[in-house]
């Protein structure tokens, strides 16, 4: 007796595509989750950081916050004599700041190996007589101890 198959070639192809395509869905989901996590961390940190500056508070006095946000390498440097001689604010890459820099938007995101690069713009464009205007930064985040930590801040 011959068994009759109830699957069509179409269902076989769709099933194979789903099986082969499944591994590619996981990185996409992880990519989106990482991007969302880093956007949230960045927005929260810069909102807090610029808020501290607006209130004439020194954000570096909150070592617990710096420990949560900065990589071991960066944290070590931020509290070193070398940073005290640095003539600019490392997180803003500027000697002064605009009060609007507490708000930001993401311009780019890229995963590279064990790091993530997030492009952000602090503040909004404005005429020079109205303030400094926007500040473009590229943030490098690294994985440390199961958490994303800010490791470098550059202008672009």
Would you write up a description of this structure?
- There is one protein chain.
- By secondary structure, the protein is an alpha+beta fold.
- The chain has one domain: Nuclear Transport Factor 2, Chain: A (Roll), CATH 3.10.450.
- Helices cover 42% and strands 23% of the residues.
- The protein is built from four helices and four strands.
- The protein has helices at 9-54, 63-69, 72-78, 81-85, and strands spanning 104-112, 115-122, 135-144, 147-155.
- It has a four-stranded antiparallel β-sheet.
- It is globular, with a radius of gyration of 23 Å.
- The N and C termini lie far apart (73 Å).
- Residues 10-26 have low confidence and may be disordered.
What's the arrangement of secondary structure elements?
Blueprint: H1 9-54, H2 63-69, H3 72-78, H4 81-85, E1 104-112, E2 115-122, E3 135-144, E4 147-155
Antiparallel strand pairs: 1-2, 2-3, 3-4
